[in-house]
Each structure stands twice: as C-alpha cells, then as structure tokens.
Amino acid sequence: MPRLDILLPFSLPSPDHAADLMRALDLPSVALLAARGRVQSSSPRDAFARALPHEAWLAQRFGLARGLDAGGSPPAAPAAMAALGLADPGRWFLLQPAHLHVARDHLVLTDWRNLRIDGAESQALFAAAEAACAAQGHALRYGDERTWFLRADDWTGLKTSTMDAACGHNIDIWMPKGTGERAWRKLQNEIQMEWHMHAVNEARGGQPINTVWLWGGGLCGEDLPVSPYSATYGASGWTAYLDASAQPVNAEHVIADAPQYGLVIIDALSAPALAGDWSAWLAAWRDIESTLLAPLVAALREGRFDGINLLLADGERLLDIAASRASLRKFWIRPSLAALAPVPSAS
Q1: Which end of the chain is less enclosed by CB atoms within 10 A, N or C?
Q2: CA angle 75, 192, 190 (to 5 degrees)
Q3: All residues at 6 or more sequence positions from 59 whose CB lies less than 8 Å from its CB, including other chains
C-alpha cells in the first residue's frame, strides 16, 4: 500500500517562545497523528553540528552520509552538478553567493531565501569571483543564480557547514575547518574584496551580496544520491538536487498519484523561523494544515495510504510521528500536540 514521508523543516516551536506558540497552534491533523501514532524523537544534536537534524536525515535517506560521518555537511555538490548537467571530474564544493550582516562584534550569515539575486547580477559577480579563483588555481563553474561550484581536489579533509546550520550565528564557528582552511579563507577574502565596490552591489543599495559560502564538498560522479522514493514532491534549495524528477506540492496530485513510497518536503516554515517572525510562522503552519495535511490525513482514513510518517524538525531535534490507518481508529485517545513541546533541559 502507498505510504508517505512528510518532512517539515523548522516546524517545531522555538524553545524560547514555546509556551505562547503551543497555545496558538491549531493543527487538528497534526494533533491526531501525534496522539495516535508512534512518536520517536532524536537526541538533541551537538550545538555546533555542521548540518541540521532534517538535513542529516535527508542525507541518510539518499545515501549521502559520508560527509556527515566525517563531521561535516552532506556532499551535495556532486548531486547539484549532475542535476544541472555539469560532469567535470574532481572534488567540487558548492559556492553560493550570500549576505553577511555586521553585528556588534561579529559577522552573521543571513538566510539565503531572503537574498534577492537575478541572473544578470549573478553572472556579473560570478565573473569577478572566477578571476579570483583562477588566480589561486581553482576552477569555478556556474550552475544557476544561487549555485556555483568550486573545484579543490586537495581539500579532502575540509569540514564545511550547510547554510541553514550557520544561518543567524557568528560565522567564525561554522567556517570551514581542516585541510585547505587557510587557502579557503584567503580565497574568500579575495572574492569579498572584488565584490566590495562592485557595480552590482553599488546598484543594489540595501543588502549587498558581500560573501560566498562554501559547503557540500564531494567527488563528482561518486557522491550521488540514491533515492528510496518512487516520487518526491516540493524539494527546494539543495534538496531539489536529490531527485531531478521532484514535483511541486499539491495534495490532490499526491493523493491521485498514490506513490508506493513518496516524500513530501515543505519548506514554508524555514524563513519565518530563522527570522524569528512567529506570526508569519503560525500563518504558514495554518496554511500547511488546511491545504496539505488535512487532505492527506483524510486520505489516510479512507485507505488511500497505508501510512504517513510526519517528520517535524528544528535546529536541535527531529520528531518522527508514524501513523497508520489502523492507529487513527484509537478513538479513545484524544488528539494532542503535547509531543511537539520542547524537551526540558537537563539542567
């Protein structure tokens, strides 16, 4: 029978605002699944882990755990290159244009989702970065506006961090560490200087594109994803490269397709959570509940699916809620969102 994994990054209430958010959440479908399904919670991640819990879960599911095992980020670059029709041999890293915010005494990486960059801007900045890379003996390839690739065959032990793991933090902690670290910092500084007074940034005004973020290194042709799913819906950012056949999310289409084993990824909660905009986060949750989860849970009740695994995550943990058609018949168990509450601190 068909079954679904539904992954919602940044869907768990922030521990700092948990009491208010838990009172405001009105999610009947989630409450039903959480109360009557089987709930498993991952151990809280290391505060300085270089990939978030949902990113680590995706890497494991698609056979890209090697980077995680070495204490770094998933090797996403080869998958992205393959999806974009680039097949140069060697060790390649994702190199993504970004904005650093200057805080009082440190630099903070901002959310890539909020960075406006069009094709003309990207191509102009890429040309400047390519010259800086060539001067240090590194090839640079253009994928799309937000996705470039740097070749560095000898940086085999370089541990890098995903953009979402580093977002909102002092970047010193999440900067690449290990073999090639000094060479990378020198190259990054060169690119930043090239861009400091670049015509693109002069014209942009408000939020300059003032840095590049390096992560996701892997061997082209070897570190490629192997999907366990018969269909994928809704991938965005680097997850879009895990399955080239991924489709947009639409509950009616998912139900009609009835994939033998499907994956649905909803990223609508990430941007408001990273920005601390909890009103927008609650609004996004309400939309997900009404347009996606309610129809899918109804389909589960009707026997259109045999099971749904709802995977909720934040920066610290991953909550796996597994429900079947049979488990929803436990009418004596009242729906509840209690499982979503943050785990109390051991201190």
Answers
A1: C
A2: 85
A3: 51, 65, 67, 68, 74
Residue 214: the pLDDT is 97
Strand, helix or coil for residue 291: helix
List the structure tokens of 227.
């999907």
> Nearest-CA neighbor of 175 among 135, 165, 209?
165
- How many angstroms separate the CA atoms of 330 and 335, rounded? 10
- Taking residues 284-302, report their average pLDDT: 97
Query: Predicted confidence band at 347 (pLDDT cuts at 50, 70, 90)?
Result: very low
Residues 6+ apart with CB under 8 A from 310: 6, 8, 30, 33, 34, 37, 293, 320, 321, 322, 323
pTM of this prediction? 0.94
HSE at residue 149, side-chain half, CA atoms within 13 A, is 29
Residues 28, 294 contacting (CB under 8 angstroms): yes
Q: Which domain holds residue 131?
A: 64-219
Please state the domain count of the chain.
2
168 and 252 co-located in one domain:
no
Q: How far apart, in whole angstroms, are the C-alpha atoms of residue 260 and residue 231?
A: 8
Instruction: Select from 219, 247, 277 the last residue of a domain.
Output: 219
Which of 185, 219, 253 terminates a domain? The answer is: 219
Burial class (CB in 10 A: 0-12, 13-18, 19+), 183: middle
Q: Note the pLDDT tens digit of each residue in 123-158.
A: 999 999 999 999 999 999 999 999 999 999 999 989
Residues in the chain: 347
Same domain, residue pair 257 and 292: yes
Decide: helix, strand or coil at residue 343. coil
63 — phi, psi (to 5°)? 75, 30
The residue among 216, 176, 177 whose CA lies nearest residue 55 is 216
Other C-beta atoms lying within 10 Å of the C-beta of residue 221: 13
Cα distances (angstroms) measured from residue 241 to each of 35, 79, 92, 247? 34, 6, 15, 12
